Amino acid sequence: MxxxxxxxxxxxxxxxxxxxxxxxPLEPRGVWMREGMKAYLCGTLGQQFDAWQRRLSALSAADxxxxxxxxxxxxxxxxxxxxxxxxxxxxxSESLSPRRSPGYGNMPLSFxxxxxxxxxxxxxxxxxxxxxxxxxxxxxxxxxxxxKREEExx
Amino acid sequence: MGEFLFLDGAFGTMAQNAGLLxxxxxxxxxxxxxxxxxxxxxxYVEAGADVVLANTFGANPLKYRGxxxxxxLVKAAIRTAKLSNAKRVAIDIGPSGRLLKPAGDLSFKxxxxxxxxxxxxxVEAGADxxxVETMGDTRELKAAILxxxxxxxxxxxxxxxxxxxxxxxxxxxxxxxxxxxxxxxVDAYGFNCGLGPDKMEEFVRFLRAFSSKxxxxxxxxxxxxxxxxxxVFSQGPEEFAKLVLRLVDAGAxxxxxxxxxxxxxxxxxxxxxxxxxxxxxxxxxxxxxxxxGTSVVKLKPYSALVIGERINPTGKKALKEAYKRGDTAYVLxxxxxxxxxxxxxxxxxxxxxxxxxxxxxxxxxESVQSVVSSPLQIDTANAEALGRAxxxxxxxxxxxxxxxxQESMDGVFPLVKRYGGTxxxxxxxxxxxxxxxxxxxxxxRRILDEGAKYGLKKKDFVFDALTLAVSADPTAAVVxxxxxxxLTEELGVNTVLGVSNVSFGLPNxxxxxxxxxxxxxxxxxxxxxxxxxxxxxxxxxxxxxxLLGRDEGCQAWIDACSGGCETxxxxxxxxxxxxxTFETLMxxxxxxxxxxxxxxAAQLLLIGTEPLKIIGEGIVPALENVGLRFEKxxxxxxxxxxxxxxxxxxxxxVRKSLKTVEGEASSEKRxxxxxxxxxxxxxxxxxxKNIVRALLENYGFDVIDxxxxxxxxxxxETALSSGxxxxxxSALMTTTVGAMGETICLAKERGVKAKFCVGGAVLTQEYxxxxxxxxxxxxxxxxxxxxxxxxxMS
Lengths: 154, 794
Fold this sequence. Notes:
- The complex is a heterodimer of chains A (154) and B (794).
- In chain A, 53% of the residues lie in helices and 20% in strands.
- By secondary structure, chain A is an alpha+beta fold.
- In chain B, 58% of the residues are buried.
- The chains are: A alpha+beta (154), B alpha/beta (794).
- At the A-B interface, helix 1, helix 2, helix 3, helix 5 and strand 4 of A face helix 12, helix 24, helix 25 and helix 27 of B.
């Protein structure tokens, strides 16, 4: 009995998430530029996604949670797409390392500000930092990819 | 027919050509290279520009990182621009570089103050004009414009930056921008940057339909592309000029250029427009409109749109309580629910004795606008509160209200002139409410005349014909309806009614309200202030008799209702299969089926089940089962939250039947003392906190949710005044967990006895202990357990 119940509960959750996915205002945008052997990337779901999420979370914790998942998946997908755009411009002898974001590994969180400035992302995408250094809109990502030459890889 | 006004072109592009280094702030050139700045301005004046924008685009204290005194640099910029001998020199006011609330953390006041610094310096140095440009958020646009209005008498030009879909970054469209700027009465407005002239054309045509002002265009020289590490733009002077000519045909008469344009571009435009005359005036909008940051609502006779009345504490104990405690969750829920129920505008009233109405109203306006995009009606009799709310509100709000008393008009009209707004005018004056429609019409005319002195026109008003209780005066509804009809037909104005007053003192009020709503709509009503979940167009013969004064003493109505006909609310449908039991309710909750849970709860009540038993034997055990499964790792967060939502919906049904005489939910809370929760200062990510709140509430705790980005002071004060036994703090990032420690420190200093429970993505037990927190909760369920433990001890 509980197993069937668990299954049905899971189905209900999946159904709700799928429904929200259809309603979500998903218009991810991004910019990137290459400078020497580095590519700088910034992507965002914009303010409207945040507004939608705030509205959902006023009434439902489950919806708030699902919208969070939907947002994270969508922004990751956008960043993947930006990476593909960079790859398409590389020479045959060059390759792209996976992207790294400020706040992970040894790259300080504050580096986000520099990437945003470099890409003029405040003007182009509306991405900026709060006084406490958080990136807004909340579903925004900055990242760096290293570009490698084949001879370096041996 | 008039003349064109020529603006200059890009400054940054020219400065780069003259040696500005990548990453160097052009604003610094006012000190470092004034000759360079002057040369650029001169080149534009020589090319034919009438107006130059001084080199102050980056002059904002929130953005400027240099070491010079910002005001001095602004003054130097204006003086330098004047050396160019341009006919007019404008202070150039660009965006602050920060996002305003609710998208970001910058408050409206901070933005206003920052812009004010630039404006004051510009005025002192003798600028002729204020040019607010490249704005991507209506709220920031308003802050900048008010900074000019409050600190100077300069004419104001304003332009926004559109994307290819004609939208701002916030999602606002051209109409929305237009409503705001017309309301703030700027001198000319339009678009700059973002697009080339080719892409701007359709939006200029669109704007022409709304704008009563001259239209400004300052497009980029086409689309940018990278060439050898530099940004270059696609359109040369001739091509650019040809395309700008099309913008002029579309209605623009103040023209210049933005990124990528040069003196050659401006010269080419001027040459091409030689001998042509500009269209002086555009279409004047005669519709009555209100707006928010992203949407516009039109008020039209016979449409009777609903203004949601639920955010008004009169007769609502729970809302009064929420205001007093600073609990935001209650208001946000009411706001979203009313919109879901069909309200198009929301009334906001914070009049509760013993609270600071001004700051409460300000806070509520801000938080409601963070969750819904509909325009608001600011409802207060307190002039200070009205002024402060109109100052910060995003968009053009309804102002509720002015009346025919001189004192009222003297107080309200200047505020509307300053901050914009559409006025709700009550047809009463020093002598009270006239008993005839003629008396009310006369007052309406006087209000219109007085408003005209402030530049307010018919379209800026909505007249309240006033609804009185038909139980006290059988002709009350007839006079009201007649007034609505005459205001609509004779005066050609929009009307509004608070319909529910009509049924005061009578049984089955919703049915009478609905009938009044239907009749008023037919008489011409533009808007009704009502509860959107109850109001609908529906007239019964008996109700008609009451409203038309044909039911003496309302006796037939009272008799018909004495048999217990209380509202005709539809009964919940019986499910085809099983009879409702606690078990079916539990299953619905455990499966996370919100609709089913609600329905079964309603059915249980219908067959006479005791409400408290439904909670104790259906809802709580079901949640407990899911909670246990979650803790054992059998169920996961989505299922737990779906169950919580379903339980919440079932609670909602049960609550309805627990209503007290006052019409408010009696408390089914399990414990006497509340829990205060907040996302700490500096942090605006509150999804986690909201999940915790929902779960705590479902477990019967009384939660005061202070929202996000909350000052330590406010958390401590609320904890003390509410007698909370627990304080929950949330922070997402390493940069904001510091504020947690500060809050705990302050609380200890002030002798707060409540225990602290902290959570958030980057927190650990170790860190929690190091900042003096009593508990660390790894997830929402753990918070519930901690609260239970503490609650049992207290």
